[in-house]
Structures are given as structure tokens and as C-alpha cells.
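Appendix B. One record, verbatim.
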Amino acid sequence: SVSTEVKSKIDELKSKLDKERQNFAKALTKSSKECESLLKEEAAKFEQLHHKFMKEKADHLQGLKDTVSKFEEGKERLYMRYEQQRKKEKTMISEQERFCTEKIAQLEESLNKKETG
């Protein structure tokens, strides 16, 4: 009968559409899983790179701090040497002034003796 034939065609079409929807859903699920997997891989790569970068950054900063610290220590040593040298020079100059003063006094005394003698 016509109604059976129409019902059969409708059922056939419904079955075909359901199958196509299922295939589409499977393809979409597969694509989503592939995308999620790739995103996880890229996130893991990024995390590794970020970790490596942070470690290298920390190492570099520590190297800079060490360099500055070493420079500061060297600067302090040089300043101490400078101060010691300055004190030494002052002492030497004072000794030289004393020596010269004594010599001048001796010469004056000698001249006074000659003039009075």
C-alpha cells in the first residue's frame, strides 16, 4: 500500500539522516580529540621552554650579581689600598718636612756661629 511505502521511505530517510548525524558526530569528536591532543603537546612544549627560560634567566641574574659583588669587593680593596698609600705618603712627607726643618735649623745655627765667631 501507499502508506506503507511512504512510511518505509520516511523510515529509510530517517535512518539515513541518523547515520549521517552519527558519522558527523564521530568525525567532530575525532577532530576535537586530535585538536585537544595537539594543544596538550604544545602546552607541554611551552611549559618546558618557559621552565628552561626561567632557569637560564635565574642563572644569568646570579651571574650578574656575582660580577657586581666581585667588582664591589675589588673596589673596596682598592679603596683600602688607596687609604694606606695616602697615609704612607703623608708620613713620608712629614718625615721629609722634619728632615728639611732640621737641616735648615742646622744651617741657620752654623751661619749664626760664623757671623758671631
